[in-house]
Amino acid sequence: MTSASPSSDSSLKNSETRSSLSDRLEKSIEASRNYFLSQQYPEGYWVEKLESNATITAEYIFFMHFMGRLDPVKIEKCANYLLHKQREDGSWPLYYGGPCDINSTVESYLALKMAGISADREEMVKAREVIFANGGIPKTRVFTKIFLAMLGQCSWDVTPAVPVEIVLFPNSFPFNIYEMSSWSRGTVVPLSVVCSHRPVYQLEPEKGIAELFRPEDKVEAIQPTGHLFSSLPNFFTYLDRAVKYLGKSSWKPLRKKAFKAAERWILDHQEEEGDFAGIQPAMFNAMLALHYMGYDHKHPAMVKGFEAIERFEIDYGDRLVFQACVSPLWDTAIGINALLDSGVPADHPALVKGAEWMLNKQVVKTGDWKVKNPNGEPGGWAFEFYNQAYPDTDDTAEILIVFNRMKLPDLRHKWSECQRALSWLLSMQSKNGGWGAFDVDNDLQVLNKIPFADHKAMLDEPTADVTGRILWCLGSIGFKREHPQVARALQFVKEKQEPDGCWWGRWGVNYIYGTFLVLNGLKSMGEKMDQAFVQKAVDWLLAHQNEDGGWGETCESYADPSLRGRGESTYSQTAWAMLGLLTSADVKHPALQKGAEFLMRGQIEESGTWYEPQFTGTGFPEHFFIKYHMYQHFFPLMALSRYRNALQSASE
């Protein structure tokens, strides 16, 4: 018998290794696919919990008190949730594993006191200690101080002025409400009504937080750091003082007119189902504004509003959590694309049902975006179940990718509605070539300098991640690089690239997210992926792979960019990195296999899916983060499927 040569032995081993990897990939993909299909709701959509920080649930306790709708059972369950989420050091963070957040901790402490938790309990003692260690009440944000004022714990004078008269500013005025981001607008208009009323809910002394106000603490309004014209923040601080001074006068000639205008605006922006802007701050403030304007709780707008708010609750039996938002269209669209990547047929009944559900959710009425985009016609999709006023470009692009890949029974209807959506999406491009999420040219930087804007989230500027997804969409449906709007978008993302090769991510954490989306946008548009700037991005991803084969990035990278691409490995961020690399790196690169091995190793055998505690979604950079519970399901499925598909193509 002739013995095999060393080279043939090596070839045999490589073949066996490839076969083993292929088999394991198929098994992993099948298990994930089966899990995901099993999670579809009867109506056709997919959605899971959208988790954020403790303030959202704490403020639900505040809201029930303000509205005089005390539900002892719900309050107890909310308190149980807050105690469950408290960390060993007594604090509540903005995200899993993050440092103490003074706002979340103060609001949670107050909510627990209002729920009847004694200040002597060990959890409360620890919370006080960590609050004092982090600067106490003086270090809290504007929104927290407003709640403290509303609950009689501090003076309204320490909060910035938010006069209701702002709703009367014409659209041509530099500071009109349509220069604000949609989420700010939906919150600030009703909040201006609340702040103009300056209500105070009197808490019993034992439910207040007098113990958090130390003699040495000085809780005061934002102070200027120089003379009137030394900086924009100083100018606005002095302006805030002047507005407050005028606000104390009994002479308010425009107040009645402003209240009427705000009332009309709020009611016009309520969905038929009762929602306001699809987010907790807008919903709570809109209901509070109507309440303080004298609306009876039996009024149809109030009845529907309460019903909408209750839909944001998740009851776990002994605990109740309130969500900041819900994400059914987002979850359904990305999930269907992941299933298609995995090999589910484009006419599979589950996918058809999901696609038709999304089609029925298309926004066909004019929203706020029309103010700065007067020539655009409606046709996009929103993020939530009910949000006709605020469709967004990110969801619309992802959903268009789905429809371009699907085989629906009524193709003519599908094509007509997709054309309508595409026209709206193209009309939403900003002058600089990029896309924001909800508005056109929403980039008036001065708004982030006003005292109210300490969260620095007053704007919806065009970003590389959203623009990358839209390029991905446009390329998938046949647009060419030479198209004028595409050329401008490509130039925009090239200019936004960081010196080390990555891209900042506005809506996902963070540079891994932005880089993944831009690379896929470039690939989809037919850019040559061997160009130096593309390979620089690939090299950046490769350089930030962790020893365990995964990728991870901390939420702190927004505050400290030196941390970009660094953090504990997560399944969603590993998937993003792999999806980015698959656009231009050699499919046989060891980094891709290491990433796939990390994902397969972490898959839960019993269910076929993954679990990660980390927050990898972004609401407001530095200030508000999200854990989309669907991310741990569909992004690993998408990455493993595309990796398998690329390996198969390379071997043919």
In short:
The chain has 652 residues and is an all-alpha fold. The protein has 22 helices and five strands.
Reconstruct the topology from this structure.
Elements: H1 6-38, E1 50-51, H2 55-66, H3 72-85, H4 102-114, H5 122-133, H6 142-150, H7 182-197, H8 232-247, H9 255-268, H10 280-292, H11 300-310, E2 313-315, E3 320-322, H12 328-342, H13 349-359, H14 393-405, H15 411-427, H16 464-476, H17 484-496, H18 511-524, H19 532-543, H20 571-581, H21 590-602, E4 617-620, E5 624-628, H22 631-651
Antiparallel strand pairs: 1-5, 2-3, 4-5
Helix pairs in contact: 1-22, 2-3, 2-4, 4-5, 7-9, 7-10, 10-11, 12-13, 12-14, 12-22, 14-15, 14-16, 16-17, 16-18, 18-20, 20-21, 20-22
What does this structure look like?
The longest helix has 33 residues, at 6-38. Helix 2 packs across helix 4 (102-114), helix 7 packs across helix 9 (255-268) and helix 10 (280-292) packs antiparallel against helix 11 (300-310). It is globular, with a radius of gyration of 26 Å. It has two domains: 31-50 and 326-441 and 462-651, Glycosyltransferase (Alpha/alpha barrel), CATH 1.50.10.20; 53-322, Glycosyltransferase (Alpha/alpha barrel), CATH 1.50.10. Residues 1-13 have low confidence and may be disordered. It has helices at 6-38, 55-66, 72-85, 102-114, 122-133, 142-150, 182-197, 232-247, 255-268, 280-292, 300-310, 328-342, 349-359, 393-405, 411-427, 464-476, 484-496, 511-524, 532-543, 571-581, 590-602, 631-651, and strands at residues 50-51, 313-315, 320-322, 617-620, 624-628. It has 22 helices and five strands. With 652 residues, it is mainly alpha-helical. The strands form two sheets. Strands 1-5-4 form a three-stranded antiparallel β-sheet, with no helix packed on it. A two-stranded antiparallel sheet has the order 2-3. The chain is 48% helix and 3% strand. Strand 4 and strand 5 (624-628) form a beta hairpin.
